[in-house]
User: Fold this.
Amino acid sequence: MQQSENSAGEAAVELTDLPNALIACKVQEDVFNDDHLKGRFEALFLAFDAGTTFQFFKSFRRVRINFTEALAAAEARDKLHKSDFNGKEMRLYFAQSVHIGSPSLQPPKPEKQFLISPPASPPVGWQQTPDAQPLINYDLLCAVSKLGPGEQYELHTGTPTTPSVIVHVCETEGDSSEGEGDGGDAAGEAGKRPRPKIIQTRRPDYTPTVTQ
Assistant:
């Protein structure tokens, strides 16, 4: 007697866990267009539950059948799944229910907030790392400081596979203006490199053509 009561209780629990809606997949397009055929389709499920409602999704060729009880949905699926309707097999599946705990959007968990840019707050145990000290090549600074205008310093000697790196020190504005005022001879006598002239690119000749 106890075994029968336990089995009945387990069956009731299983039925309550089942959804009260079915999804009919790969429904014929005539069901969506023909009212008579649509009525025949609905009558199959109304026989199990008079309060059944239908939602037709023509683009997906699917129909959602909503029952008032999960037991009616289970009976309809058991009787009509893979049955013949209008010359084709009908496939029925239980609709998956999505449970949303709260209607409002909840903030992410604290351990996942570091993925937000910028983060709302650092994760637990996070510590800021100190910035590394800048690397300064004092030998290079000393060599460059000893250069004068017009001189050059080879930083890296060229090899057959790599080019050489040479630093050219630019002349000051005062030296270049003096060189331009005194002329090329004065600049040459002073041992200063004359400032090169920028040669403008000549525009090509334009010959108009008359089309008739």
Notes: The chain has a mean pLDDT of 76. The helical segments are 2-17, 29-33, 35-46, 70-80, 138-145, 173-182, 184-189.
